[in-house]
């Protein structure tokens, strides 16, 4: 039966973005071919349409890019902070001016809904550059260095040198901003490798660097697969490695870097617990659960993928949640009314599918709202599993998809014990109207980010990072400067 | 005999204490989360066929209102004519749901809309302050009903509510409901701007529904803060949950401050995605408004002709 109030298609225009048929690597301020001339295709995950061909970086290209960054470092790091700030402010303004174009581009290349790229990704990208632009001339006052022990002052904090940065496909431009903005503000130069499936927004960012007049070699972008990333982090002239991505790759990188004098920060996987107490603001908790696990199709490292609900309100909350999920609109990511877009790649879709099947095989009860999936592209219906216990694979492994595992608890202590009973420690959520409980529970949770009565809220002033297998180091806020400074 | 709530929750109104326990036991409302959800639904893009449907639906939901000291029978007749046929240049434009007037204008309004299906709603109970003895309020209601009002828009005693005298508020609503008899539907106005907190608005909503309201309504339009997306969303959640628990469906009427088609469409999205499509009908959802209607008509003309007309192409009444 057709809905009474059927929203007509409201697609955002693709005409605002001009995607070239091919792109080179961005090295030393120029786009160049890969050393061996190899290219790979990047697809729109919503339609499997080929968007463009991009160069596939080799080890020789990594050498060239790192050398360019090294050459640029001397002058860039010697600029007064206020001069570096000017470039960053300029980049932030250009991002704002081109935000519609970049939002459409990101939606095409990643598959996430335009509502999210327009209202979340792009505003946060610009905010991150503005925020770190503001720090560039205040580093001496950020609380690093100049320690007055026994009346002596230490040295001012200094940049590390060349940063090799490898970022994931779930928030391509936002993760770029998290990496590049603090690195440049602190006087480092960078070589960044975007994810293989989402290279385009980083290449558009390269164009923004040129538009802003950023000196050559300060930012270099190498597109390619995991081999290029591995070559970058292993390169002997890289002083700092920053990686956001899977825990498995993060461990490999830690092994590569071990024994060198490279500084390393890792932001890895998660299995966030979203804890709902019986005195929670229920309607807002339902929204928070939805935001926690269905924002960006659940492809979020800090997703609230485990719902821990107090047993006394389990049935009532699940009824509300299911009713809410039935209103989610899945489909064309460019449609302004779409809530759930496409999964980023066939590979990721296969992983989500396999883990969901394992959940069923292990006896959890699977539920999805009635939901028609498009025939082309990579799609997965919003899914929740009830009757999940700590022993289920879907309660332990990161799924990185729109799949929620629902567990119950009886007391606050049990909630804390279950929330912490995971190899990860990235995020958690606490839902209660009782302020003292928020503080008490938050103090006992081992997670880098704890939200209370909200979820998946980001702000450049707030540090972000994990415990345990979720990685180490903090990005964002004053803390985020430290990862790029010799203090 | 006062009407008592004939449903699963009737025991909660047994005493002041049980009523208070029930109302204070309702889940809290997180202000930031509620407003974020309302804002997020406000980004829905309603275009082409969906817009045409929504504009006509919104017109059919308007309680076209004049509540001025300067109201005259002539003014009310003009308003009635406008309600019956909002766009004289296009007879396919639907009538509004009702005209809404003061009790002494009910007879004139009734005559103006006679035979059209447009209802006459009357504010009563010493609107807008509600600061009068109960006997006066009830007399106000009876007069309006006797003059032919199809709907009564009462105001609650905010003073009693804020002082925690829930039972007093409850008793007044049931007494007014009784005075409405079987012919008039009762809309209960909370004046949400004076209740101030979302927790209070949720409690007032349940109190009103328990006491027999047919509609719960945000505001009089006479104070600084009237209908907002967030307080209307909250009231839509209340009617949704009340029906789930009791099987009884209650209407919602945001009033005051909704002036543009764009605003009205946002409210319809709230209805659609919160209470659901069962409420997408003027029996269950109304807009208390006056200038909104002309903006809806201008948007309707724009959709039909492809160009904007202007304020001289809609009637001023």
From TrEMBL, chain B:
**Which of the seven top EC classes does this enzyme belong to?**
lyase
GO BP annotations of the record are:
carbohydrate catabolic process; deoxyribonucleotide catabolic process
Q: Which PANTHER family match?
A: DEOXYRIBOSE-PHOSPHATE ALDOLASE
Q: Which GO terms describe its cellular component?
A: cytoplasm
Q: Which organism is it from?
A: Streptomyces griseoaurantiacus
Family of this protein: Belongs to the DeoC/FbaB aldolase family. DeoC type 2 subfamily.
State what protein this is by name.
Answer: Deoxyribose-phosphate aldolase
Pathway per its UniProt entry is: Carbohydrate degradation; 2-deoxy-D-ribose 1-phosphate degradation; D-glyceraldehyde 3-phosphate and acetaldehyde from 2-deoxy-alpha-D-ribose 1-phosphate: step 2/2
Q: Which GO terms describe its molecular function?
A: deoxyribose-phosphate aldolase activity
InterPro entries this protein is in?
Aldolase_TIM (IPR013785), DeoC (IPR011343), DeoC/FbaB/LacD_aldolase (IPR002915)
Q: Which NCBIfam families match?
A: deoC (TIGR00126)
Q: Which domain of life is it from?
A: Bacteria
Q: Which UniProt keywords apply?
A: Lyase, Schiff base
**Enzyme Commission number:** 4.1.2.4
């Amino acid at each position: 039966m057709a809905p009474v109030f059927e929203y007509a298609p409201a697609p955002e225009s693709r005409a605002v973005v001009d995607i070239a048929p091919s792109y080179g690597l961005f090295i030393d301020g120029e786009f160049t071919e890969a050393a061996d001339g190899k290219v790979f295709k990047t697809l729109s995950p919503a339609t499997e349409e080929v968007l463009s061909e991009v160069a596939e970086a080799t080890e020789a290209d990594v050498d060239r890019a790192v050398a360019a960054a090294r050459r640029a470092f001397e002058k860039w790091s010697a600029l007064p902070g206020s001069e570096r700030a000017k470039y960053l402010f300029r980049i932030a303004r250009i991002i704002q001016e081109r935000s519609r174009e970049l939002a459409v581009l990101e939606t095409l290349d990643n598959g996430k809904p335009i509502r999210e790229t327009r209202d979340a990704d792009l505003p946060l990208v610009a905010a991150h550059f503005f925020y770190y632009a503001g720090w560039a001339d205040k580093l001496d006052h950020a609380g690093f260095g100049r320690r007055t022990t026994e009346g002596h002052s230490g040295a001012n904090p200094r940049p590390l040198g060349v940063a090799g940065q490898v970022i994931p496909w779930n928030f391509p431009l936002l993760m770029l901003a998290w990496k590049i903005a603090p690195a440049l503000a602190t006087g480092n130069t960078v070589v960044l490798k975007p994810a293989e499936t989402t290279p385009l927004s980083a290449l558009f960012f390269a164009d923004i660097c040129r538009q802003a007049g950023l000196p050559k070699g300060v930012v270099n972008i190498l597109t390619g697969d995991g081999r290029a990333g591995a070559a970058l982090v292993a390169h002997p002239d890289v002083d700092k490695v920053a990686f956001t991505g899977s825990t498995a790759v993060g461990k490999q990188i830690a092994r590569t870097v071990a024994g060198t004098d490279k500084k390393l920060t890792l932001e890895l996987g998660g299995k966030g617990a979203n804890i709902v107490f019986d005195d929670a603001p229920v309607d807002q908790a339902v929204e928070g659960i939805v935001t926690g696990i269905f924002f960006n199709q659940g492809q979020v490292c800090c997703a609230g993928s485990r719902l821990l609900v107090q047993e006394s309100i389990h049935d009532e909350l699940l009824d509300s949640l299911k009713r809410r999920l039935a209103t989610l609109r899945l489909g064309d990511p460019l449609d302004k009314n779409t809530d759930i877009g496409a999964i980023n790649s066939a590979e990721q879709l296969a992983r989500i599918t396999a883990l969901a099947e394992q959940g069923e095989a292990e006896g959890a009860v699977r539920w999805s709202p009635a939901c028609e999936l498009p025939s082309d592209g990579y799609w997965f219906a919003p899914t929740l599993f009830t009757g999940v216990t700590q022993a289920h694979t879907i309660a332990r492994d990161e799924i990185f998809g729109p799949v929620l595992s629902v567990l119950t608890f009886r007391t606050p202590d049990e909630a804390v014990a279950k929330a912490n009973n995971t190899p990860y420690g990235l995020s958690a959520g606490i839902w209660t109207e009782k302020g003292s409980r928020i503080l008490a529970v938050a103090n006992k949770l081992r997670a880098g980010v704890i939200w209370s009565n909200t979820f998946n809220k980001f702000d450049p002033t707030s540090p972000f990072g994990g415990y345990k297998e979720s990685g180490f180091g903090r990005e964002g806020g004053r803390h985020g400067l430290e990862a790029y400074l010799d203090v | 005999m006062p009407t008592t709530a004939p449903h699963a929750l009737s025991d909660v109104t047994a005493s002041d204490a049980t009523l208070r326990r029930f109302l204070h036991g309702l889940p809290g409302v997180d202000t930031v989360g509620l407003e974020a959800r309302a804002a997020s639904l406000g980004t829905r893009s309603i275009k082409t066929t969906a817009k045409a449907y929504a504009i006509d639906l919104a017109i059919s939901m308007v309680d076209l209102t004049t509540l001025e000291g300067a109201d005259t029978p002539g003014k009310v007749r003009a308003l009635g004519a406008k309600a019956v046929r909002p766009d004289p240049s296009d007879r396919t434009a639907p009538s509004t749901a009702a005209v809404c007037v003061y009790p002494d204008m009910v007879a004139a309004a009734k005559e103006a809309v006679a035979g059209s299906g447009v209802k006459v709603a009357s504010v009563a109970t010493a609107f807008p302050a509600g600061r009068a003895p109960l006997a006066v309020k009830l007399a106000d209601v009876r007069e309006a009903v006797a003059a032919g009002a199809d709907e009564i828009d009462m105001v609650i005693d905010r003073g009693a509510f804020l002082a925690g005298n829930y039972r007093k508020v409850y008793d007044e609503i049931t007494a007014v409901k009784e005075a409405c008899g079987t012919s008039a539907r009762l809309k209960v106005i909370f004046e949400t701007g004076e209740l101030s907190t979302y927790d209070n608005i949720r409690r007032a909503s349940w109190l009103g529904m328990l006491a027999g309201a047919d509609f719960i309504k945000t505001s009089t339009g006479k104070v600084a803060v009237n209908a907002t997306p967030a307080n209307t969303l909250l009231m839509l959640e209340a009617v949704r949950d009340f029906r789930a628990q009791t099987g009884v469906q209650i209407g919602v009427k945001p009033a005051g401050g909704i002036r543009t088609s764009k605003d009205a469409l946002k409210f319809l999205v709230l209805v659609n995605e919160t209470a659901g499509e069962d409420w997408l009908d003027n029996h269950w959802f109304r807009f208390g408004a006056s200038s909104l209607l002309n903006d809806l008509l201008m948007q309707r003309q724009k959709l039909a002709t492809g160009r904007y007309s202007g304020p001289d192409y809609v009637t001023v009444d």
